[in-house]
Structure formats: C-alpha cells, structure tokens
Amino acid sequence: ASKKIIDAKLAKDFEAVLKDFQKAQRLAAERETAYTPFVPQAVLPSSNGTSEIDLGSNKGAEQQALLVESRRQEVVLLDNEIAFNEAIIEERELGIQEIQQKIGEVNEIFKDLAVLVHEQGALIDDIGTHIENSQAATVQAKSHLVKAAKIQRSSLLAPGDIRNRASHRDRSTCSLIKKSRFKDLVISSL
C-alpha cells in the first residue's frame, strides 16, 4: 500500500515539474520573440548619402566612402550575427521540444509502471492468500490422515475383532447356503 502511495506521489511530482518546465519554455520563447535588436538608422547606408558627399574635396569624399563602407560592413556583420543567433535559437527550440517530448514519454512510462505495480500488487496478494489457504488445508489434511491411521490401526488390532469378522462371515455363508437349499426345495416341489 505504501509503494502505491509513493508511486502516485512520484507521478504527481513529475507532472508538476513537467508543467513548470513547459511554463519556463513558453516564457523563454516569448522573450526571444519580443527581443529585436536595435539597429540605428545612422548605420544603414542611405541612397541620399552620395549626393551629400562633397565632390569638391577628395579627402572628405574618401573619408565619407570609407565611413559608408565601414557602416555597410557593420550592418552585414550585424545581419550575420542576427541570422546566426536566430539559427541557434531555432536549434535550441528544437532541442527543447525534443526534451519535452522525451519527458512526456518518460511520464507515460511512469504512469504505465504505476499501473503495472498496482496490478502486480493485487496478484501477489492473491498468491499469498492462496499459499496461506493451501498451507492450512495441508495441515488439516495431515491431521485427518493421522486420525485415519490411528482408527485403522485400532480397528485392525482390536482383540476379538478378527473372530467377530470370521464368525460373521461364517454366518453369512451359512445363511446363503440355507437360502439356496430352500430355493432348491421350492423348485423341486413344483
């Protein structure tokens, strides 16, 4: 009975932990979708940027071109980093879903195991009862056999019993003979 209680408690605790895990997973997914990295507008290259470059100054134009190229590379790097992070997040989400599925399978296994333990407990109790009943019946049969052996010995060894049996047998035989003679007489008289 206490094993059944322990199994039920374990199953209940497991379900509670599973629910907490699922809640944390949902919260993490919500936070990941809510977070969008901020890319300042100044980093993005504009189509108007070339018209603003002072063509009269080579040095200024060269610096402006380097600045634009630098910003473009930063944006590309940020895009690559974002894509990489998104791939990692997706991979982790798949891993979390797989773990969640495995936890659900383990939960089902524990539930099935609890049912089996419960059923086996009833069968073991039945077997124990049958063993106890068989033992009691065996003890009773042994006592009956001992009594029967005593009665048989006492009836075989009783003095005069052999003579009584013999005289009874002789009387029965005489009676049969007399009946047979009477029958013969009746038949002959007819």
TrEMBL record:
<keyword id="KW-0653">Protein transport</keyword>
<dbReference type="GO" id="GO:0000149">
    <property type="term" value="F:SNARE binding"/>
</dbReference>
<keyword id="KW-0813">Transport</keyword>
<dbReference type="InterPro" id="IPR045242">
    <property type="entry name" value="Syntaxin"/>
</dbReference>
<feature type="domain" description="T-SNARE coiled-coil homology">
    <location>
        <begin position="86"/>
        <end position="148"/>
    </location>
</feature>
<dbReference type="GO" id="GO:0031201">
    <property type="term" value="C:SNARE complex"/>
</dbReference>
<dbReference type="InterPro" id="IPR006012">
    <property type="entry name" value="Syntaxin/epimorphin_CS"/>
</dbReference>
<dbReference type="InterPro" id="IPR006011">
    <property type="entry name" value="Syntaxin_N"/>
</dbReference>
<dbReference type="GO" id="GO:0012505">
    <property type="term" value="C:endomembrane system"/>
</dbReference>
<dbReference type="GO" id="GO:0006906">
    <property type="term" value="P:vesicle fusion"/>
</dbReference>
<dbReference type="GO" id="GO:0006886">
    <property type="term" value="P:intracellular protein transport"/>
</dbReference>
<dbReference type="Pfam" id="PF14523">
    <property type="entry name" value="Syntaxin_2"/>
</dbReference>
<dbReference type="InterPro" id="IPR010989">
    <property type="entry name" value="SNARE"/>
</dbReference>
<dbReference type="GO" id="GO:0005484">
    <property type="term" value="F:SNAP receptor activity"/>
</dbReference>
<comment type="similarity">
    <text>Belongs to the syntaxin family.</text>
</comment>
<protein>
    <recommendedName>
        <fullName>t-SNARE coiled-coil homology domain-containing protein</fullName>
    </recommendedName>
</protein>
<dbReference type="InterPro" id="IPR000727">
    <property type="entry name" value="T_SNARE_dom"/>
</dbReference>
<dbReference type="GO" id="GO:0048278">
    <property type="term" value="P:vesicle docking"/>
</dbReference>
